[in-house]
Amino acid sequence: MKASAGTLAVTRRRRFDIWDVLIRLSLIIASLACLLPFVHVVSKSFSEDAYVIANKVILWPEGFTVEAYKKIFADDSILRSLYVSVAVTALFTVIGMILTICAAYPLSRKQLKGRSALTFIFLFTMYFHGGIIPDYMLVNNLHMLDTMWSLVLPLAFSAFNLLIMKTALSSSIPDSLEESARIDGAGHFRILWSIVLPLSKPIIATLSLFYAVGRWNSYQDALFYIKQNVDMRPLQLKLYYLVIQASESFQLEATQVQLSNPEVLKASCVVFATLPILCVYPFIQKYFVQGVMLGAIKE
């Protein structure tokens, strides 16, 4: 019996180890699938045109050069687009989080009458939308075309983020804590500022990252709303125009550049547009996992 029990334990351990190896292998493959394309783009951005044309660049630069980055920093329009993207992303994230918090906090409190109906109204907008044409007509009627506000206000509120914030506040802020604050004479704004926000740092950091990354990577609304004012083009829209101009005569707005292959300049622009988000992410990484899981399980 003892030998049989020991054999069973060894068999279970082997099965566990096999699944553990398979899970780790799957995670490694998924991580490489996300990482290697970016490494390839970085390698192309630091390679000479001849090696890129010959498709010899894979994961390591061939003929190391920084000429493409010199052309980027020499073009004032790209640096101006970077400034626009940073300003729009920061303003968009701040306004989006203010709207989300101010809407999620009352919806998470049980004493609010009709909160289920209000939540359904917000949820309804996730499934049914007016479309691009009504959005464009609204922005046009509000005289926001070719302005920064056309890139900030229309998408500054997300019903999906609202539901995440509402669930997190409902599960992480106990009613007894709010009742104690009310006994001490605290009002709604005092409770929100002194109790709710300090206890909600993980979910606030997570949703801020969602807002910032979504705004930073978006270019479609800028393509619709920014037409005549070239100075208001964000970096992503600038990158879009660089991608579609795949020809031997590769033209920037501020300077004319002749390249044998525009892929090098396009790769350097991709790296240039990605670095700001990569620099911000490590500072909020410690909140990210905790914020994603917050409210996922409610006791």
Structure characterization notes:
It is a single chain. 72% of the residues lie in helices and 2% in strands. It is mainly α and 299 residues long. The chain folds into two domains: 2-53; 67-293, MetI-like (MetI-like fold, Orthogonal Bundle). A two-stranded antiparallel ribbon has the order 1-2. α1 runs antiparallel to α14 (263-293) and α8 (159-172) packs antiparallel against α11. Mean pLDDT is 79; it is low at 248-260 and 295-299.
Topology of helices and strands:
Elements: H1 2-45, H2 49-53, H3 67-74, H4 76-108, H5 115-127, H6 132-141, H7 149-152, H8 159-172, H9 175-183, H10 188-199, H11 201-217, H12 220-225, H13 235-244, E1 249-251, E2 256-258, H14 263-293
Antiparallel strand pairs: 1-2
CATH superfamily of the largest domain: MetI-like
User: What kind of assembly state do the chains in view correspond to?
Assistant: single chain
Percent in helix? over 70%
What best-fitting shape do the alpha-carbon axes yield?
globular
Q: Could you say what the CATH architecture of the largest domain is?
A: Orthogonal Bundle
Number of helices, where a helix is a run of at least 4 consecutive DSSP H or I residues: 14
In total, the number of domains comes to: 2
Q: What is the succession of H and E elements?
A: HHHHHHHHHHHHHEEH
What number is the mean pLDDT? Answer: 79
The largest pleated sheet is described as: 2 strands, antiparallel
Low-confidence stretches: 248-260, 295-299
Strand content: under 5%
Number of distinct beta strands = 2
The CATH class of the largest domain is identified as Mainly Alpha
Q: Which strand order spans the largest sheet, edge to edge or round the barrel?
A: 1-2
